[in-house]
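Lecture 7 notes. Example A: sequence first, then its structure tokens.
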Amino acid sequence: MNGKVVISVAITGSVPQKSHSPAVPITPDEQIESAHAAFEAGAALVHVHVRDEHGAPSSDPERFRRVQEGVVRHCPGMIVQFSTGGRGRGLAERGAMLFLKPDMASLATGSVNFPTSVYENPPDFVEELARAMLGFEIKPEVEVFDAAMLYNATELVKAGLLRAPLHVQFVLGLKNALPARRELLEFLARELDALLPGSTWTAAGIGRHQLTVNRWSLELGGHARTGLEDNLRFDETRLATSNAELVARVATLAVEYGRAPATADEARQLLGLGQASHV
């Protein structure tokens, strides 16, 4: 497993991307098709938001179920991760689909200012989500938009609400939150190793930082996230045509750093997950 990188693909997101590109999959069928193409290109984990028939963020468990079942059926072993993010959804809605028992779910362990809003994650709500994930045997992906969130996660481990080793995602390049600085990513990775040895991490670069952060992650021994949710732009001159195109780019980059995309089964071992379920 030495040198393997888990490629995560965030296929849709919860807010309309610039230019409303038709590349972004919206309906469950489109999301399943996009996840399958990304899986074939080397992604082992799919991060899932759903939207309603008007394209607005949704918490509809039926839509999550349809995407989950389609990915399980068409992408053998691929890790399904539900988003509990807050854009366009109230606190009461954000964990409403966890009873479907995805492999993983996102868990932001604190609040942060987004460019035009506050991403609200009060302590009691974070603890409630963590308890739900424990009960449904869902592994959280701890989302770190601010350094304090890493230390908050450590306290949740001490309280028995999170199980070590963790899997953590560092989000870099979002205005008002963590900047895209290599020194900062190096610091966060060292802190994670010191506080919670054996934990794994990935990093997401927002907007124009996506490719740069992918390179840092590959070089520093982390895992990599890509996808249209974070950034439509493939390079400085054109837009990506699909999630699969972005995944293929990371898979190719991995070779430059002496690494290789993990298969779905390898990714499950690396992240401490059980065997895949089947429809």
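Example B, a different protein, same format:
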Amino acid sequence: MRAWLQARDPEEPIIPWWLAGTIIGLLLTISLTFAGHHLGAASEYEYTGGRILSLFSEAEKLPRWQGKLGVWWETILLLGVFVGAALAAWLTRKPSLEIPTLWREHFGADRWKRYAVAFLGGFIMLFGARLAGGCTSGHMISGISQLALSSFVFAITIFVTGILVAKWLYDWRTA
């Protein structure tokens, strides 16, 4: 498998977009049909924080986390995302810790600066997801497929904000 991945054209996707979309659609259908849940992950980060907090306090007694600190399907989903990403990086031998060229040109090659900014960006994104009542996968895959107006607003907001922040972040350094 690894030899095939290394021999293939790196510009070609491993899975065609239409097949990946079909797989996600089937997964969403199965999830809604059998589990009664949409796909989403933002809540699990909150519950994981609650599990960690419960090691040092009686957090599980708080009304917010009662009955939610066990291992659920979201836990397995996030573990699968982590394991899948690690497996993909290992199979393709693409170093995921490499500083992207565009970042290096604008902000330098300091790894810890890159990690700090990535962590801060992830934290802001997660905070926004919880504030919006769902994460990007919950809104943009599950919500839009169910024609939820809030999910369309969320998707538009995410894309517009992402474009504006990226433009500001990289353009102000070249001005």
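Note on Example B: The radius of gyration is 19 Å. The longest helix spans residues 149-174.
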